[in-house]
Amino acid sequence: MTPVNDVPHTDSIGRRRGGRPTREEAGKLDEAVRESALRLFLENGYEGTTMNAIAAAAGTTKPSLYARFPTKEDVFRSVLGWAMSRSDWPWPEPELPDFDDLEKALTAIAGTAVRRALDPSMIKLQQVAVAYASRYPDIARKALGSGYWPRTRQVAELLRRHAATGSIVADDPDALAELFLGMAAGAPARLASFGIIRENPDEHTRAAVTLFLRSLRPETDRPRSYE
Predict the structure, then answer these.
(1) Host domain of residue 40
(2) Domain boundary at 85, 115, 148, which?
(3) 94 in a domain, yes or no?
(4) pLDDT value at position 146?
(5) What are 10's strand-pairing partners?
(6) pLDDT at 219 (0 to 100)
(7) Whole-number pLDDT of residue 148
(8) How much is the pLDDT for 2?
(9) Residue 90's pLDDT is what?
């Protein structure tokens, strides 16, 4: 029979106290810290969130937290990149659109980007990041850009596919994808960070798609101008 004193102690996330965490335990700790820190940053802002509060909310000890994240800045950097790149936050991403229909695909991708950008949790997280842009400029750039990276790749691939058929002209699909998402979703997101939200974002999305498609027309499809 094993003496009670010999039973290893664990914290609330199942990590053995007093020993080096396994890879699985370290992964669970990172996830618990990020989930808890994200909630605290959204509720209290950067300055209002302490490492003690993060450790308590994550159900771990301060030594364990500091071993993984030496400073609050380290936690914030990790949380920001993790939250912005998640496909299930603030809500699950929809299925990929049908790439055979260029207009519908662009509308679907832009609509998803706008809805994500205008979600209250995303707005709050960007506001926190922008508030400390002068202190952590790289964090602010990540907040403003990383949410669009997956969609930028989608749009670029979409443009390559249709340019290969000759239906559009897209000499630099990657640059065009960035320009499109900046126009379709970046502008509404920037306004939202200042508390300005359009009443009907779908109208903005449709207008952005229409304007973008016009710029992709081959010369032979452009309306002639007569003097």
Answers:
(1) 10-85
(2) 85
(3) no
(4) 56
(5) 16
(6) 80
(7) 62
(8) 45
(9) 84
CATH code of the domain covering residue 64: 1.10.10.60
Name the token pair of 106.
């662009």
Q: In terms of domains, do 191 and 116 share one?
A: yes
Closest by CA to 37, choosing from 14, 16, 59, is 59
Q: pLDDT value at position 8?
A: 43
10-residue mean pLDDT profile of the chain (227 residues): values are 44 54 81 94 93 96 94 90 79 86 96 90 84 77 64 94 97 96 90 86 95 92 54
pLDDT score of 207: 96
Instruction: List Cβ neighbours of 132 (8 Å cut-off, separation of 6 or more).
Output: 46, 139, 140
Same domain, 109 and 214: yes
Per-residue CA distances from 186 to 22, 93, 115, 118, 189 (Å): 41, 18, 11, 10, 5
Please tell me whether residues 76 and 126 are part of one structural domain.
no
User: For residues 90 and 37, what is the distance between their CA atoms, to the nearest angstrom?
Assistant: 15
pLDDT at 95: 86
- Phi first, then psi, for residue 10 (nearest 5°) are -130, 155
Amino acid at 15: R
CATH code (residue 168): 1.10.357.10
User: Tokens 């053995």 appear where?
Assistant: 16
Q: One-letter amino acid identity for 111?
A: G
Contacts of 68 (CB under 8 A, 6+ apart): 26, 29, 30, 33
User: 58, 85, 112 — which closes off a domain?
Assistant: 85
Q: Which two tokens stand for residue 181?
A: 């998402």
